[in-house]
Amino acid sequence: MKKKLNKYIILAIFTFFLGSFLPAAYSGVDTGLEQLKVLVDVMAKIQDSYVEETNARDLITGALLGMAGRLDEFSEYITPEDMKLMKEETKGEFGGVGLRLTTAKQGELMVITPMINGPSYKAGVEPGDKVVKIEDVFVKDITSDKAVAMLRGKEGSKVKITVERKDEKTGKTLTKVFTLKRDIIVPEVVFSKMLDNGIGYIYVTDFSGHTMEGFEKAMKDLAKQGMTALILDLRFNPGGLLNSAVDMAKLFIGENKLIVYTKGRKDEFFKEFKSAAEAKYGDIPVVLLVNGASASGSEIVAGALQDYGRAVLIGSRTFGKGSVQQVITLPDEGGLRITVAKYYTPNGRMIHKDFKNRNRKDRDASGGIVPDMEVDFDINNERKVTYYMTNLIYSPSKKTALPENIDNKIDDIVLNRAVEIIKAREVLGKLAAPAPQAAPTPQAIPAKQAEPAAKSAPAQQAKPAAQAKPAPQNAQPPAKAADEETKK
Known about the structure:
31% of the residues lie in helices and 23% in strands.
């Protein structure tokens, strides 16, 4: 009798819990009730007979993870702990001590570098320091995720770390203790430099809450240095915030043109995102670099600039993550990330790859953005050259910013091709014959940029101009949490 009662209690709790965040589920109660009873029976048998003791909360969490995870690669149930971390990461800032860390051989955390002008940098933490204790807890006795969580906290709060450092003169191991005051940490996501011939170069690692702030600063700095053409590098950029990606495209596309639109099963998810009347950098020549790990927001920017002929795309076919995930906050402070729509370029090309297609060849030939010029570059070498450009080592005592000590002799053939195209354009411009002298005529009105073939007709999907090779098989898929709307 007690077991039967427990089963009914579990059924009632689970049904209430399900309905509390998915009211629409009640519409399918008649057809799904039998399956729900099976679920409850399984839970009851697990709690009764499993070799180790279990609790209902963990079992229900597992069921929710499976339920959402079976929908597609990007839908999922988010635990309360992960939901908190996701909000911090998407916002692009968090209370921390400003350290980039890696796991050392003995289980301690090795400092790759303190972030410039962060709490650790100001306190004197050096690259190569080994973090052995956080407060009074030995790092080797906890997971790296737990250690990172201990370093993060409320802005203004303090945390004590103990590090070991090898003395450069004596070779002895020194122990140092630092008390760090946590501050808001804004990770670097935009890196820029001037190349030869007035070519500016900007690498963007993701589209977070501070991406556009850094990007516009980089554009202004390069303009002051005489930039006449831009290479925008979005390789290995997994996406991020939709608005950030749209705002970047707006800088290069004007005249209130369509940047991207979304279409889902429900009418409420059909949305258009357009540019402003004027583009701040509407005249500067742009070459955009992408690869098989460029996803989501990167593909929105690439697709829009390509459709309007606003940039030449070089590299390899992009990942094909063109779906919209809505994040719903649940009563337990967890969340449900669920795909509600898909992205389309101004010409009506669906960005999303057919991930459910079991035929690998057909799957890899679907979705994504096909570059105007494909360049076959080993994905591992490509990762190394971009890593070298963006990962700087900051030493408080030496006051230097140097690339990490990795092999930087690899030739970046994609970047080299982009430079060649810009230089060729300049040479061909000089070779153009001067226009013959003619009688004065009224000043001509500059031609507008061509409108895409299907500005707002989702049904008329344009096919890519050329068939591309599949993205490298060992390209890493992007992290989830790209292009989301959050509902409370």
